[in-house]
Amino acid sequence: MVSSLASFLVPVMTLAFVGRNMSKSELSVVALASSFFNVTGYAAIVGSLGALETLISNAHGASSHALKGVILQRSILITMTMCIAVIVAWTRMYDVMILAGQDPDLARSAADYLLHISPSLVFLAASDAMKKFFTCQSLVVAPTVAALAGTAMTFLYNWVFIVVWKWGLRGAALAVVFALEGGMPPGRAPVTVAGCA
Fold it and tell me: Is the CB of residue 162 less than 8 Å from the CB of residue 22?
């Protein structure tokens, strides 16, 4: 629960940072793009990982360590395929926003920001799968520490990219991507801890 909260705080912290250090129009861009990100991307990923907890828990209860690894690998493969499809769809998000009645300048900037934060969808998908993998085995320390570390770095990334280097919205997007990538549990740890190595 703490690791999920920490992951959710990353875009919220960036939104607050943009609101404090940039214009109202740029704040609108980040808010609109973040809404589309959550509704069209992250919600689909969360839904696709719904069965993972049940399958991992059953395999763990049956002491089938190899099966746990196979389930994790397949779930990551499925979610990565979904991520690719969603990111390809996001290349047309400007048109969708225009059809929804958004201002063309706002829609253009929001679509650009959405494409710049798109790698974070991949990191969130892999991270959520690994968090579920850990949690179903009562191993919560690694994903919690990783998520807290990524969240703690969010302020630094925002400050460097937006204030020091003056990268604007692209800097804000990179701050989200870097923080969520840094908040992933160690890639090999779930397999090793579960005895699947």
Answer: yes
Task: For residue 39, give the DSSP letter.
Answer: I
Q: How much is the pLDDT for 10?
A: 94
Joined tokens for residue 117: 């934060």
Q: Which two tokens stand for residue 128?
A: 């959520």
Spatial contact of 154 and 32, defined as CB atoms under 8 Å apart = no
CA 42/CA 32 separation, integer angstroms: 14
pLDDT value of position 184: 72
Q: List, for residues 91-138, the tens digit of each pLDDT value.
A: 999 999 999 999 999 999 999 999 999 999 999 999 999 999 998 888
Using a 10 angstrom Cβ sphere, with 0-12 exposed, 13-18 middle and 19 or more buried, the burial of residue 33 is buried
SS (H, E, C) 167-187: CHHHHHHHHHHHHHHHCCCCC
